[in-house]
Write a structure and sequence with these properties.
Blueprint lengths: L17 H11 L8 H14 L3 E5 L2 H11 L7 E4 L6 H7 L4 E4 L11 H13 L1 H5 L13 E7 L8 H10 L3 E5 L7 E2 L2 E2 L6 E5 L12 E5 L2 H11 L23 H11 L2 H19 L5 E2 L7 E3 L5 E5 L5 H10 L5 E2 L8 H7 L7 H9 E4 L7 H14 L1
Parallel strand pairs: 2-3, 2-4, 4-5, 5-8
Antiparallel strand pairs: 1-9, 6-7, 6-11, 8-9, 10-12, 12-14, 13-14
Helix pairs in contact: 1-9, 2-9, 3-4, 3-8, 10-14
Keywords: Pyridoxal phosphate
Protein name: Polysaccharide biosynthesis protein
InterPro entries: DegT/StrS_aminotransferase, PyrdxlP-dep_Trfase, PyrdxlP-dep_Trfase_major, PyrdxlP-dep_Trfase_small
Length: 394
Amino acid sequence: MTHNNSPKITMSAPDLTDAERQAVWEVINTPMLSIGPRIQAFEESFRRYTGCQHAIGVNSGTSGLHLCVRAAGVGMGDRVITSPFSFVSSTNVLLFENAVPVFVDVDERTGNLDPVLTAQAAADLAEGGAAAQRWLPRRGAEQSGALKALLAVDVFGQPADYDLLSPIARQHNLKLIEDSCEALGAQYKNRMAGMLGDYGVFAFYPNKQITTGEGGMIVTNDSAAAELMTALRNQGRAPGDTWLSHTYLGYNYRMDEMSAALGTAQMARIEELLVSRQRVADLYNQHLAGLPGIEIPYLAPETTRVSWFVYVIRVARGVDREALAARLAQRGIPVRPYFLPIHLQPYMVERFGYREGDFPITEDLGRRGLALPFSGKMDEEQVAYVCQGLRELL
């Protein structure tokens, strides 16, 4: 049962004002609903914000990652080192190209790729033979080819350790793709997330730091890759192609003008939105400090600024997370497990033969992670009610 006097709490909520509503209204009162000035303005806001030379708006973060994989030259049987502790899209975009994801376990504190294991995996894959075999899945990699890329994920809004990952990519001539879909506004050693690899990608689902409903943005300083990805998002139409002429096999990954207008209005408020999310995370940290049975999020010293996407605690080993979640739900407090390991998703087990125990840290984090209700619109009463529920039930 829910408590009658409890505040109403949702898992997440976008922070929208009349400025965003007006921006969308203005677009739908014009005949230009796609491939117009709003997408150009939205891309320009990212060039200014991140300092990138090229920003390419797309219809989802997944689409953006897929275009980066294409730009990196990843194809049939190629290998890409990546994380099993992520949302499935960071692996799915490799499977779209029939590439082989080579999973490396993560740092138990941050959930980001473990640089030491990553270095070892890259070296062993370069050596080949038995050394390489220990990193490959049990099946599905028999015809695998070259190691082409490293796809790192900035988990929960905290950048991976790129000063350790970048030299690995350079040493082995790999393209470094930064999945920064959860980390808009984050900084690593005072450098902007998204700009720490060859290509970076942000995403704008309604629970993200900014939202366009659905949408994503690629940022890069690689002009040739940017030209290719811009063509691929628009059915492969390259510069100079006429209306029905298509140089490449491409996709319809375009972002519409309404979404771009909404995003541009959100980017005008980006600092306000990030500060609001930081305020809520600080409230959680204060209310949960010292509570037995849970760990609050860990921030690495290299993280100059975390960009709070979700607020994920870890329950102690031995705590029944599912029972705890069910009892919180009875109090009107929605929570979610975060993340479920990619390698144990049914289609991954079927295709590659993964088993429990293959990536123990990822699996441990998957068993213990619990995302609490989180958005920049939460007030202290709501945060306190969530924390009170945790305190009483633990």
